[in-house]
Every structure is written in C-alpha cells, then in structure tokens.
Amino acid sequence: MLESSAKDFVSALSSKEPIPGGGGASAYVGSMGMALGVMVGNLTVGKKKYADVEAEVKILIEKSEKVIARFQSLVAEDAAAFYPLSQAYGMPKNTEEEIQRKEETLQKALVNATLVPLEIARCCAEGIDLQEEFAQKGTRIAISDVGVGVTFLKAALEGAKLNVLINTQIMKDQEFKHRIETELADLCTVYTAKADRIFAEVQNSITGGKSS
C-alpha cells in the first residue's frame, strides 16, 4: 500500500472503502515521525562538532530505520487484519445458526484486528525512545524536526490506542481483553508523557525557555 504515492494514500483514506483506515494511517504517520529522527541523524553525521557522538548517532539511525520498515509493514498488515473483520460485520444474522456463525467469525477476526494496532503502539513507544536520543545528540540546527517527529509518534500512538479499544469493547474473551488493554494503558501512560516532555524540551531549546 505504501508503494503508492502519498496523494494516492490520502485519496484511498478518504474514500468510503473500509481500508486503509485509522490503524494504517497511524502507522503511516509513525513512519514519518521516525523518518524525521533519521533525517536529524543524517544531518549530524560527518559534522566535526558532533564527532564525539557520531558512532552513537549512526546506531540510532540504524535502529530507527528498522522501526520505519516495521511501521511500513504495519500499514499493510492493518489492512489485511481489518478486512476479515469488515466482512464479518456484513454477515447475515437472520437465523440462530447465522447469528452464531457471525459471532464466531467476528470474535476470531477481532483478535488480529486488535494485535496489529497494539504492535503499532509498541513501535511508537520504541520510536519515542529513539527521538529522545536524537534530541540529546542530534544537530541543533534540526532540533525542531525532533519535536515534529515525536509529535507525529505521539499522534500515531493515540490513534493506535483508539483502534485497539474499539475492538476490545466487543470482545468476549475477557482475559485477552484485559491483557491487551493493560499493556496498552501502560504504554500510553509512559509514552504520551515522555513525548510531551521531549516536545517541551525541544521547544525550550528553540525559544530559550520563553513561553510561546
């Protein structure tokens, strides 16, 4: 899906088709957020002023590129996971047998449709950790891009959260639901706060602590 242009992706996103949707869009936004960190890293490497941290920045770039690749895969994975769920919603329910078949199909489809956005949230958390290091070690001339990147990753995290919760609300497997929602809540509590802190530090670095 990401082989198409950004224009094509946005066009598909705005259509009435069920895919791509909010999960895929969250992964797309996450990839852009992480790419901004890589850009900062690439602008840092080779500069005499940052020679002492160059080796560390190269490692950050390598780790970040893996996160970008994972986000890109998750765009397609989200579409693949949601399609069976959309089909299940459309199944007939005129008889008891049809109702039972629909419910069984729906519950099965909900699992994959939930696990993919949870993985997007995990990638966002990893990306926010990496952005924290780019903020500390990256070139100051591009520090604003770290702030933009971490904002994108936070938005992607919140988007992934909603895509998990809309599925867990109708799950019958309460143990699975509790485990997923607990992990998600922990991720969001830690990483939305961390993203906000990084953004504030970037803003303070730009403005010298003056309020906006």
UniProtKB/TrEMBL annotation:
Keywords, comma-separated and alphabetical:
Hydrolase, Lyase, Transferase
User: Tell me, what is one Gene Ontology molecular-function annotation carried by this entry?
Assistant: glutamate formimidoyltransferase activity
* Cyclodeaminase/cyclohydrolase domain ranges (all copies): 6-185
Q: Which InterPro entries match?
A: Cyclodeamin/CycHdrlase, Formintransfe-cycloase-like_sf
Q: What is its EC number?
A: 2.1.2.5, 4.3.1.4
| Protein name as catalogued | Methenyltetrahydrofolate cyclohydrolase
Q: What is the lineage of its organism?
A: Bacteria, Bacillati, Bacillota, Clostridia, Eubacteriales
